[in-house]
Specification:
heterotrimer; A mainly alpha (about 240); B mainly alpha (about 150); C mainly alpha (about 90); A: about 240 residues; mainly alpha; 2 domains; three-stranded antiparallel beta sheet; C: about 90 residues; about 0% strand
Chain lengths: ~240, ~150, ~90
């Protein structure tokens, strides 16, 4: 009797010991896992810091180079002297201004996009000039008629453009076109003064808006560009 | 205290116009002997750029580019360039601002030395004028902030 | 050709007079500001025409660019001031 009791007690003790061991092993495992997790998070943070630093530096360099190129072209247009001395002077001045004011001309332009934006903007100008010519004829015909059949009104429309610079480009294009003047942009809503029914209809058509969106890669272009950008990110990281 | 403008058009257009204003001011300074302009006019154009930046972006943003202290330093540097070139001519045996004497130092003939000397003096004048205009503007408009 | 430009210049001066009327008798300060800005743009064209008449267009382009710049800055500063001071 006593022997069986002793054996049971021993077995119980062994069982408790076994449980305690398994508990301890579990706790150890969780600790190791947590430590590994923490380590991984720290590593990730480090990698991200390296990457964003590189990205910021690269973006800054891109802004600098883009601004310097545009300023140098502007200088040559102004100067008209093509000897080495004046070109060197122009290059120095452009680099100087671009170094100190690289964050003014291009803001929030993704890395690698500057060339596309500038090129598309240049191609947009002839279309805008044609549009201005057509609207000029229309307005001249309106005001030269003795009855002057103008019907001024203020129209509002919601825009799909998101960034400041694209909105401003659209607003200035509208103002440049005779017959329409942008009064205000408030929370994505344009307030435009239109001289007649026809120009207002043209604005509602939204061709100009589409073209401006195309320049600054908004709308559909945004997502495609982001995908491309992500693949480039992984390449850089070597993941 | 000048706040930044709350109109997005004015803010963005002024921001992207600023580098062009500066390069135009530098062009006026550098081409003072071909076309109208020179140190004073170019300096005023440069200062107009900073005034535009202050009015549209707010004084805080402008301080990142041109603070009162920087303006003081730049005005002193401009004066130093001007007086330094003058004194250099004096040291080389000519009169004050007698640019022809610089030809010994720069290893070029007399007319080129004169042209380069005038260019240097104009850069000095432009820096001084720009910085002093900025200091005046900041002092006027930051007055209600310090009180 | 010179008489043509001269006539355009005189026409521009007459238009400036029209804007000056608005500047002088404008009911509110905003009318005056808009009038001053319009006078500025017309002065640009008059400067260009003077340049063509004198045969020194490259010099007058520089001058008119400075004029345009100062007109722009002045307009913005005036608008800023009016924004703070309210309608007078």
């Amino acid at each position: 009797m006593e022997v069986t009791l002793l054996i049971e007690a021993t077995e119980n003790a062994f069982r408790i010991l076994e449980e305690a061991r398994s508990h301890a092993a579990g706790i150890m495992d969780t600790t190791i896992e947590l430590m590994a997790e923490e380590h991984r998070i720290i590593e990730e943070k480090k990698v991200r810091a390296i990457f964003t630093g590189a990205r910021r530096r690269r973006a800054r360099f891109q802004n600098f180079a883009g601004t310097a190129c545009i300023l140098f072209v502007f200088w040559v247009l102004l100067s008209g002297h093509f000897d080495l001395f004046h070109l060197t002077l122009g290059g120095l001045c452009a680099a100087f201004v671009a170094y100190f004011f690289h964050d003014l001309l291009f803001v929030n332009v993704r890395v690698g996009d500057i060339r596309t934006v500038v090129w598309r903007f240049i191609r947009y100008i002839p279309w805008l000039l044609g549009q201005i010519l057509i609207a000029n004829m229309h307005v001249a015909a309106l005001v030269l008629r003795p009855k002057m059949p103008i019907r001024p009104r203020i129209i509002t429309f919601k825009t799909k453009l998101e960034t400041d610079i694209s909105r401003v480009t659209l607003a200035n294009s509208i103002t440049l076109t005779p017959g329409t003047v942008t009064i205000d942009i408030r929370e994505g809503e344009f307030y435009v003064h239109a001289l007649s029914h026809l120009v207002a209809e043209e604005l509602y058509g939204g061709e100009m808006e589409d073209r401006v969106a195309h320049i600054f890669m908004e709308g559909d272009h945004l997502y495609v560009q982001d995908v491309l950008d992500a693949s480039r990110i992984y390449e850089t990281l070597g993941v | 205290m000048i706040q930044k403008s709350d109109d997005v058009i004015v803010r963005t257009v002024a921001r992207s116009l600023m580098p062009f204003i500066l390069i135009y001011g530098l062009y006026v300074v550098m081409h003072g002997h071909y076309s109208p302009g020179g140190g004073f006019q170019g300096g005023v154009i440069l200062a107009a750029g900073f005034v535009l930046l202050t009015v549209t972006q707010g004084i805080e943003r402008t301080r990142q580019h041109m603070s009162q202290k920087t303006a003081c330093v730049i005005s002193s540097v401009g004066l130093l360039i001007y007086a330094g070139i003058g004194a250099l001519c004096l040291i080389l045996g000519g009169r004050y601002l007698d640019y022809g004497r610089l030809s010994q130092l720069l290893q070029v003939d007399q007319p080129t030395a004169r042209s380069l000397g005038i260019l240097g003096v104009e850069i000095g004048v432009a820096l001084g004028v720009m910085a002093v205009m900025c200091i005046i503007f900041f002092s006027i408009f930051a007055a209600d902030e310090t009180e | 050709m010179n008489t043509f430009f001269l006539l355009i210049g005189i026409g521009m001066c007459v238009l400036v007079l029209g804007c000056l009327f608005r500047v002088t008798y404008g009911p509110t300060i905003l009318n005056r500001a808009a009038g001053i800005s319009a006078v500025g743009t017309k002065t640009l064209v008059i400067l260009m025409i003077i340049g063509v008449l004198h045969g020194r267009i490259e010099m007058f382009v520089d001058i008119s660019m400075v004029y345009a710049l100062l007109n722009f800055v002045g307009c913005i500063v005036l608008a800023k001031y009016l924004e703070r001071a309210g309608d007078i």
